[in-house]
Specification:
With 78 residues, the protein is mainly alpha-helical. It has one domain. Helix content is 74%, strand content 0%. It contains three helices and no strands. It starts with a helix and ends in a 10-residue tail after the last helix.
């Protein structure tokens, strides 16, 4: 997850730099934009999976939610 966040920031900065030096067309900018979009899409998927997993553990009441969330503690977990 942290690698994707770092890759998103770095590729975004690289896109900005390429635009700054007026390199707006070509294979290099297309590759960097593709990498940037891929990172963003993977982050969206990981966030969604994380939300689903957290919801699953909240409904299961197995204590995982309470160990991670400092508020909305479960009252009756095993």
């Amino acid at each position: 997850m942290y690698a994707l966040l770092t890759g998103t920031v770095l590729s975004g900065l690289l896109i900005g730099f390429l635009f700054w030096i007026e390199l707006r067309d070509g294979i290099l900018i297309n590759i960097v934009i593709f990498f940037h979009e891929l990172n963003i899409n993977l982050l969206y998927w990981l966030i969604g999976i994380h939300i689903l997993a957290a919801t699953y553990h909240r409904l299961k009441r197995d204590g995982v939610w309470s160990s991670m969330v400092p508020f909305f503690k479960e009252k009756n977990h095993k």
